[in-house]
Amino acid sequence: MTLSLLQHLRETQGAGLVSETTQHFGLGIDKATGFINAALALVVGRLVNLNQTQGTSKVLEILDKQDTAALWQDTDFSEAHKELTSLGGLDDATSLQALNLVADRSLKAIHSLEQTASLGKEGMSELLDGQAEHLQGHFPDWIYAAAGLPALIGAAAYNTVKESVASLGSILRQAGDAIADTASEVAQKASEVTSTAVDTASEAASSVADKASEVTASVVEGASNIAAKTSDATVAAVAATGAAAASAAHLAGDAVHKTAAAAGDTVAKVGTVASQAVKEPASFFLRALPWVAVIILIILGLLFWKGCQQQTVPVAASTTPASAVASTTSATLVPATLSLHTGAHGELLNCQGTVGNADLQKNFIEAVQAQFGPATKCDLKIDSTYATSFAGLAGLSEALGAIKASPNTSLELSGDNVVVNGPDQTEIAKLIDRLKALFGTGVTVTAAAPLDAATAVSNSVKAATDALSSIKATDAKAEDVIHALNLQVINFPTGGAALPAENKAVLDQAATLIKAIPSLKLEITGHTDSTGDEKANVALSEQRAKSVAAYLVSKGVNGSALTAKGLGSSKPIADNATEQGKFQNRRISFALVGAGS
């Protein structure tokens, strides 16, 4: 029999989705479980339908890009949305966010399965063809209608779906009961081992690293023995193991005198021992076991750091005046930036920014791709005058996941300040609370202020001018010039194409650099927001692009090196649901000819 994708998703994603939906959207476990089961069935049904109607290549493309928008495209979703909203007890907007969250996790899980098993096109087609036998007779008709599949059941089968919907909740409750039954046994074992650790630590000040490893190994072994008796109790064993290890490490930490290298060896050993506590988890709940190693690593790392901090290290007196030192600190650097916007289905419309080094660039891009797919592009420029750190980096990936789950939302990061915006201010307030928790106290998160077009234009012109000033004509690179040009906002008058005076200084600088790069072929594209007639918008956006090209030609740029076109509102970089979004969509973009804009 073919693997059931629905069951696979329940087992690999069910617990995490229950946790996320209860935490993010305030659902009870029963409602969350019902909602998730229905949503998972919809995802599988849509993939089956797409495989039948558009081919396996389309399915593989959606999986590769984690494209939830393409998953629901060309589907009558009104009835399904109503049913899902009722299942979860949510409002329409929140229901859509929760569905996109389930779809995103599902696509990632199926893509991982396809990659791990090396299914390829033929294998994926066979897998999807076999899903009908697992779906038939288990769900109400509206799920099949929304998925675009033939009705496979009658109304009487609704009782079956209720039983299926309750399965995850039942598993959770059974596991909880088993954990409660064995918790006292786990606690007793942990207490015994911790008591031994107290005695041992007082005698082992000269070799704390080795003793910490031995004590932790003993704790893990005790937890593993209990886990062997009942796999459902492993979660409790994990908790008790972490507590016992923390107590032992705390006592041992007072005697720290060894070097950081010795501490590192111990941390590595502890991670290895903890990872072997349970070799074959019996259910998806046991996949939490690697967190044992993480908990111990964090506790020991902090304690060793504290011990090392208490040791006095002689430092040579500085001959540099204090004022000179202050001038070279990161306080003089421009704050690192990251700007991104999501569309109506949580898809990424635009991502760009500037950072101080390749490490931060890599960290930002990895966080973006972790949420929006490995093929996602983000135009992040490296500039040594910008900062190389962000205080909320540890929570960035999950924060972007929250942004993705909030359609038509923007995030503007500048240094350790984050500004978010969206059409529903109630939802934005909830999102801000979530981001504050993820980023921590080192990052300030606020809602966007009302649009101040004049200030936005002024700031953008300054940023573009500064960037162009840093480029030397003797070694100018095309990508640097284009990046600088795209920093400016050209705020044309409503309905007009006359070039604003404040932008002419920017174009004057750019013209000098463009002439110094004979091979540069520049594509200038005009864009509008979604207001008004699209045909008129396309014509207006083209006129504005040609206005910019004409000005550059008047400054000596070869006209044959320039191409001007207008795309109207067809390529937004922000949502058109807010005034700030519309303002950003009314733009002129610059690109190499043939590179797109």
Characterize the overall form.
globular
Query: What portion of the residues fall into strands of 2 or more residues?
Result: 5-15%
Give the end-to-end Cα distance, rounded to a whole number of Å.
48 Å
Q: Quick one: how many beta strands? A: 9
Mean pLDDT: 75
Put simply, the count of helices is 24
Largest sheet: 6 strands, mixed
Q: Helical content, roughly?
A: 55-70%
Describe the strand arrangement of the main beta sheet, using strand numbers.
3-2-1-4-5-6
Protein described:
This protein is α/β, with parallel strands linked by helices. Helices cover 59% and strands 8% of the residues. The protein contains 24 helices and 9 strands. It has a 6-stranded mixed sheet, with helices on one face. The chain has a 3-stranded mixed sheet with strand order 8-7-9. Helix 17 links the parallel strand 2 (348-355) and strand 3 (379-382). Helix 14 packs antiparallel against helix 15. The two termini are 48 Å apart.
Short description:
With 597 residues, the chain is of the alpha/beta class. Helices cover 59% and strands 8% of the residues.
Labels describing this entry:
597 residues, alpha/beta, 6-stranded mixed beta sheet, 3-stranded mixed beta sheet, 9 strands
